[in-house]
Specification:
signal; six-stranded antiparallel beta sheet; 5 domains; Major paralogous domain-containing protein; single chain; 7 helices; mainly beta
Amino acid sequence: MKATKFCKQAAILLSIFALNACFDSDSATGNVPADSDTAMECTAKKIEGGSDFEFICNGTVVGSIGNLAESSCKFEELGDSTGYEIICGSDTLGTFYGSLADTIPTTDSTTANPAKCSEGDLFLQATPAKKYVCFHETWKAADSLDVLTIWAYDTYGIACNDSNKGEIIQGKISGLDKVCKSSGWASPNQADYAMEGQKCTAENEGKIEESKISEEYYKCENGSWIQSYRLDYDTQDKTCDESNEGEIIEVNHYKSCVHYITSTNYYKCSQNNWQYLSLLERDIYEGMICDSSNIGKMEIGPYSNIAYVCQKNGWEELVSEMSWYGNASEFRVKTEYNQYSENAGGWFVYSDSSLGGNSRIKWPVETGNEYDDKALDPVIEHCNGLCGEFVLGDSLHFNDSSYQKPFIGVGFNVTDSDTVGGDITGWGGISIAYSGPAAIIELVPENEKNYLESDNYFANIPRQGSINAIKISWNDFNSWASLDSQTEVPLNEFLKKVVAIRIYTQLEPGSIESFKIMAIGSYNTPVYY
């Protein structure tokens, strides 16, 4: 298409001073005769609440433009002085012909005297309050200037060099923040704010520094700060190659001024790169040993608090899971045996009734469903778990001289049989979200012995005034048999034949205590509540 001259609205996008202008373009849109004296007035007003500008020419909104903070733009006067080119970077946005109309009202000419106008000067008028900037030896109202001009003169006369690299100021006209970089004043980014006042020059090129105002790390690269990380900061002066493959280092962080350690990080040299230690590597570093002397032994990581078992090839995390979350309206515990029976994982009440006792649980709602009038489904829905009151009955009387405290609690089936247990070794222990009196958590084996001859394994739960997540590893369980000087079944054998888990309290006759059980799981399973 043949080039024509016309007043180009959208290509320049920026002009907010009056233009007696016509632009070269291939477009046929908006044609104006070449000899037209029509003055085209374009304004760019900042959109409230944002950084974009609305571009208006002769009263018509032609679009919006973003903040040109990162653009390097300038006006170049044509050789024949008939107009100007607007150049941003290496691109020419457009060429307009004509002069820049003076926008200062005649009444202001005495105050803002054009004869005293030096390029870039800023003039502030008190009454009425106005701002002017000197542009091409002519005073222009600052609130009516184009974005390019505002950007150019926001920092006019303010030095930006190595002495104030990283300094952030407010633009004299726009009021927007500007940061001093190697290339001059620019719009600050997150890194500039975080590293304000910290210079990035040839002297610290490639160095990683910690922000003085935030817990962040940045690398000096080509005169600008770029995001980096704690690992890179801690290891930037540490050698990692074939000579120290596998080496583990400790890096302490100190509190400024008082110089005390606030944190310690651990890193391992692996394939010529420093890496964070895995949880298992950290546990081993803390002294967890797996060798021929403890094959098959379970241990809790001293750092991670994860359950592991020592195998021939080293430590392996126990991944077998048991879980139940009351707030998910789960009526059965997932025990890994649920697929074999509907009874596996089912909750039940455990009391001293078989020994002649009369202890009970006072539930907040009636129990039962369409299949079983003792089912605890309604309680679980009501409480988002199990909740109620333990009501202890009379003492248990075994003979003329033997008395026991009454007991009451709940339990769940691991399998569905009293004679065939399941292997729960892989659970590593039990986690429980519990509140209530001191309680006992007990493992019930297949073919359980009677109460007085019990060799069950148990662990204690301290009194909890509010819901807390408690983790108990198998190493914390003891056998009742060991307390009575009886022969106990080794724990690793016992764990392979468990039919149920009980949680109960044993208190003075007549005691009444509130309780809640909101979640339960294997040792490595998070218990949310």
